[in-house]
């Protein structure tokens, strides 16, 4: 890979023992130098189809996220279709560090797509973890685990031809040893950063299957490049516990952020207050407040309405359950407007409905809850 936009900082001895430098060693040094140059972000918005678009990324970054992935982009369509590029990939100067994620099964097509975005991002990421049927039909995502030579060729193609580093997001093989061999292969092919979703391809439902942090720890110990963990991140206690358990550089959160974009600022929904250790107080913030902020960002950075609809349902799901007639009216709208959405939030508030987000009060925090407003 060509030299990245980083300073040639040496690898810290405690992280990577000194040795005679090989090509792989040089790549490892550059991988760490690049990560350090970005500030070593720990709190990261995971890639989510139709959900980790620019306005949502910016909202999460306002509330503590330190980096973010774009939604998965289809490399062939991105290369061929101007309308798709304009609608599905938008960014701005505040949108950094940024991972732009592609699904692909053709190295040349992937490279063409990647070259279009490399001036605007900090990593071009290859989606090797999508377990959905559409990925099986399209032969990409986690289904490329059945064709490791192709995976290797995708990584090598980008590593040898881009100025920006390549990263990969993977799932686990059923056998840990296969996962470790996979991770080492990606590192040797030129991957500069590895995000590991701690579930297998068949474990699609995160509510049924806990992410395997022990397996993520084993991957972290098997490679020398930076590693991120994905899975079981519902609040900041999980962030702390995951980093301690795995030794990774940072964590990704997905589904929980959709309900609570302020997760990384320490806020949590009522679901993750009950039964948890600590004293929690009303954070003087709720999901309707966050929706208004999100809509403001959408007015500044337009996105397709289908994406906005999705976020409305995710953010106001609990509110809608208390006021189903407002949800039903929303669902009937063939065409929505910002005016309609702002009025809908006012309707919810006028009913007296409010579901606060909570903050944990620590021993050093004041007892006056107004301090959190």
Automatic annotation (TrEMBL):
InterPro entries noted in UniProt: Aldolase_TIM, DUS-like_FMN-bd, tRNA_hU_synthase_CS
Keywords per UniProt: Flavoprotein, FMN, NAD, NADP, Oxidoreductase, tRNA processing
Documented EC number(s): 1.3.1.88
Enzyme class, first EC level, given as a word: oxidoreductase
Domain DUS-like FMN-binding: 45-317
CC cofactor: FMN
Pfam families: Dus (PF01207)
GO function term, MF aspect, one: tRNA dihydrouridine synthase activity
Record PROSITE patterns: UPF0034 (PS01136)
Reactions accelerated catalytically: 5,6-dihydrouridine(17) in tRNA + NADP(+) = uridine(17) in tRNA + NADPH + H(+); 5,6-dihydrouridine(16) in tRNA + NAD(+) = uridine(16) in tRNA + NADH + H(+); 5,6-dihydrouridine(17) in tRNA + NAD(+) = uridine(17) in tRNA + NADH + H(+); 5,6-dihydrouridine(16) in tRNA + NADP(+) = uridine(16) in tRNA + NADPH + H(+)
Family as reported in the entry's similarity comment: Belongs to the Dus family. Dus1 subfamily.
Protein name as annotated: tRNA-dihydrouridine(16/17) synthase [NAD(P)(+)]
